[in-house]
Design brief:
There is one protein chain. The protein has 207 residues and is mostly helical. The longest helix has 22 residues. 68% of the residues lie in helices and 3% in strands. The chain has a three-stranded antiparallel beta sheet. Strand 2 and strand 3 form a beta hairpin. The protein is elongated, with a radius of gyration of 19 Å. The model has no long low-confidence stretch (mean pLDDT 90).
Length: 207
């Protein structure tokens, strides 16, 4: 039996276009996104814009208050430092669990990151960066760890936008992740824990 494929809806296409612009830093934190302007810019009806914005609000990339335009969520350096305060123990659990194991999904995400062209939008780097760390978490096999980690996804993605300033040379970012995966794969647990802790101990660009 043939299963028909449906084209991407206008809502999904608009949400994806805006998501890529946000995660590439083209639309900066705090920028309002008026429905009427987006409708005119993308040539779609306002209900389509409204639904697309709702998708991004649900993902945590936008924030919306009553009677005001949605705006790109702002994540301060203090927010990101607190985010890492929570992420470190979760990724420490991952390091202990995976020490001595190779995670194919993480290697594949790294390969995709390394294959990105120099002019690829930063949102593509963010996507593969997130995929790599998510594959490590999933490999642990703990649904609760996955849920806790997923709750931090929106702020993590917005934080990764700042790393453009920290990693102007993407090859450095790829090399750091390759080293991290190699240490985890070799083990032992203490070496993996130290490598993960060092990997998470970085700045977030200009304050």
């Amino acid at each position: 039996m043939t299963i028909p494929l449906h084209p991407v809806s206008a809502v999904a296409a608009l949400a994806d276009a805006l998501r890529r612009r946000i995660l590439s830093g083209e639309i900066e934190p705090g920028t309002p996104l008026p429905e009427q302007e987006l409708s005119a810019a993308y040539g779609v009806a306002r209900p389509t814009v409204r639904e697309a914005l709702a998708v991004l609000v649900h993902e945590g990339l936008l924030r919306r208050e009553r009677h005001r335009s949605a705006q790109v969520a702002e994540v301060t350096v203090a927010d990101l430092e607190d985010l890492m305060f929570v992420r470190r123990p979760l990724e420490d659990l991952m390091a202990v669990s995976l020490a001595g194991r190779r995670v194919a999904g993480a290697d594949e995400a790294l390969a995709r990151m390394g294959a990105l062209s120099a002019d690829a939008p930063w949102s593509d780097v963010v996507a593969e960066h997130m995929a790599l760390h998510q594959e490590l978490i999933v490999a642990v096999g703990s649904p609760r760890l996955e849920r806790l980690y997923a709750a931090l996804a929106a702020e993590t993605r917005l934080g990764l936008v700042r790393l453009r300033a920290v990693y102007p040379d993407r090859d450095v970012l790829v090399a750091e992740h390759r080293d991290l995966l190699d240490v985890i794969a070799r083990g032992p647990a203490e070496a993996a824990r130290r490598a993960v802790a060092a990997h998470l101990d970085h700045g977030w660009g200009a304050h």
